[in-house]
Design goal:
The protein has twelve helices and ten strands. It is of the alpha/beta class. InterPro entries: Bact_Chemotaxis_MeTrfase (IPR050903), CheR_C (IPR022642), CheR_MeTrfase (IPR000780), CheR_N (IPR022641), CheR_N_sf (IPR036804), SAM-dependent_MTases_sf (IPR029063).
Length: 270
């Protein structure tokens, strides 16, 4: 059982390091997810874990704690509608405003194990005629170094490729290796993965025409959401788009972003 002071320390630690806001009802979740971490590190209990984190601060153990508490649920073409609208509405609109040959830049801010950026890459490959030879750069980031490594490998289980991935993409863009499926090298080459904490500056990434930041803000408190949204707005082009998850919104959190013409799509306030 986690004592009040240990729980409060872990709650502050996770919020400061990852933005994750844990409610009072998450004690059991904390214990369940941290138990494997403690066993691997030969830590005898929560109190010793907290004492070690207090003493060492940034350390492999601290990274393991953050990794364990991060939700990395992802699937190909998740919710489908944002990808349909990307192909039918957003890409044609942005391309019509850009000079011929000017690249488009897309950022997946919570890429997890890579299904979202690879879904975008496959969709773009299917719409090469629309792009007219225009180069598209996809930047994919995540807090977790472990999931970024998995994403870079581009290898998925049978269960993972059956979740949301249309059969024609599986046949065209993957090669089977035993019980696993590896995404083709040309699709992998379209995505540049790197580790990034959204609580820290991301101005060095440059400007983006489209930002996917789906199903991550729901884990932050209001102040953190507002801060992250404000900094996302600063790296969006003046006519760029932000795409959030179905349960997320900028309302009451950002003065720089307003709803676009489609649900879940937001634009800069001009």
């Amino acid at each position: 059982m986690i004592g009040p002071s240990d729980f409060e320390f872990l709650r502050r630690f996770l919020k400061d390091k990852s933005g994750l806001a844990l409610g009072d009802d998450k004690r059991y979740l904390l214990e369940t997810r941290l138990d494997p971490v403690m066993k691997k590190a030969s830590v005898t209990g929560i109190t010793q874990l907290v004492a070690t984190l207090r003493e060492r601060g940034s350390s492999p153990l601290a990274e393991a704690v953050i990794e364990a508490m991060t939700t990395n649920e992802s699937l190909f073409f998740r919710d489908k509608r944002p990808f349909d609208q990307l192909a039918a509405l957003i890409l044609p609109e942005l391309i019509s405003r850009r000079p011929p040959g000017q690249p488009l830049r897309i950022w997946c801010a919570a890429a997890s194990t890579g299904q979202e950026p690879y879904s975008i890459a496959m969709l773009l490959r299917d719409n090469e005629r629309l792009l007219g030879g225009r180069r598209v750069e996809i930047v994919a980031t995540d807090l977790s170094g472990e999931v970024i490594e998995r994403a870079q490998e581009g290898v998925y289980t049978q269960f993972e490729v059956q979740r949301g991935l249309p059969v024609h993409y599986l046949l065209k863009c993957f090669n089977q290796e035993g019980q696993m499926w590896r995404i083709n090298a040309d699709i992998r080459a379209m995505v540049r993965f790197s580790r990034l904490n959204l609580l820290q500056s991301f101005a060095h990434l440059g400007q983006f025409d489209i930002v996917f930041c789906r199903n991550v803000l729901i884990y932050f408190d209001a102040a953190t959401k507002s801060d992250v949204l404000g900094r996302i707005a600063n790296v969006m082009t003046r006519d760029g788009y932000l795409i959030l998850g179905g349960a997320e919104s900028v309302l009451g959190l950002s003065s720089e972003l307003v709803p676009g013409s489609q649900h879940g799509f937001y634009i800069r306030k001009n």
